[in-house]
Amino acid sequence: MPKKLPPKVPVKLLIPKNLIPEIDEIVTEESYDGRGDLALTLIRWYIYERKRLKGIDKELTIVKNRDNGPKI
Question: In total, how many domains does the chain have?
Answer without folding.
Answer: 1
